[in-house]
Amino acid sequence: MKHLLFTCAFTIATLFSMGQDQRSAAAQQGLRSYKQLLAVKPDKNVNMGDTALWVLGTPLNTAIVPLDKLKEYKAGDPAKDLIMNNDNVVIFPVINSRSRAVVSSITIERNRERWMPASFGREKNVLQKIDSIGGAERNYTLVRILAFNLNFISFEEGGNLQFIPLQDDLQRDIVQGRPLPAEKILERYAKPARDYNGLPL
User: Fold this and answer.
1) Fewer CB within 10 Å: N-end or C-end of the chain?
2) Which of 168, 171, 195, 174 is nearest to 186 (CA)?
3) Phi/psi-derived region of residue 100, left when phi > 0, alpha when psi is between -120 and 50, beta in every other case
4) What angle do CA 60, 9, 139 make, to 5 degrees?
5) Considering its fold, how many domains does the chain have in total?
6) 135 is in which domain, residue-wise?
7) Structural domain includes residue 43
8) pLDDT tens across 63-121, in order?
């Protein structure tokens, strides 16, 4: 029995490691492609002399709060029940190895079992906000409420899930960078979700 458990654990660890390697390889491929693209079509917002210093940072996992689940949310319900991990999308910060500043981003996506670069630079602003307000190193996840174009970074503290807003919503007493229990934030958006008419905001 112990041998079987060890074998299962070893297999899971091996598969996880392989997945990590595939993600890193796809991101490195993306970084090379991004630099080549900039060499052909320079971006006025990019100092081309610095691209040789670009390296990949720690990947950021992503998740969403589906609108249909948010509509059903009631005060006191666990926030974790609403959050769906998006295991097919990972965001890598692109960092200047000299200044340690976040200069861009590479998003990779999994199509079936293959990871591929999907976009360059799209999440730069989000990553810069996370870098500026994130504080101590934690295991962060980027959580999005897509219908309202809202972004939060989530982390656990003392067994409780916290959200750090990446935008202000003063109408609901939500301030960028100020952590709140995830349940408190979801509670404040449950009624707007129920009232949402489906039109772009």
Assistant:
1) N
2) 174
3) left
4) 20
5) 1
6) 2-195
7) yes
8) 999 999 999 999 989 999 999 999 999 999 999 999 999 999 999 999 888 999 999 99
Q: How far apart are CA 37 and CA 43, in angstroms?
A: 10
HEC string of the chain equals: CHHHHHHHHHHHHHHHHHHHHHHHHHHHHHHHHHHHHHHHCCCCCCCHHHHHHEEECCCEEEEECCHHHHHCCCCCCCHHHCCEEEEEEEEEEEEECCCCCEEEEEEEEEECCEEEEEEECCCHHHHHHHHHHCCCCCCCEEEEEHHHCEEEEEEEECCEEEEEECCCEHHHCECCCCCEEHHHHHHHHHHHHHHCCCCCC
Residue whose C-alpha is closest to residue 44's, from 121, 138, 141: 121
Measured CA distances, 131 to 82, 137, 166 (Å):
26, 10, 11
Q: Whole-angstrom Cα distance, residue 163 to residue 184?
A: 9
Cα angle 158, 76, 177; round to 5 = 55
Q: Which residue has the higher pLDDT, 47 or 94?
A: 94
Q: Which neighbouring-strand residues pair with 105?
A: 93
Residue type for 75, please?
Answer: A
| Contact between residue 123 and residue 91 where contact means Cβ atoms under 8 Å apart | yes
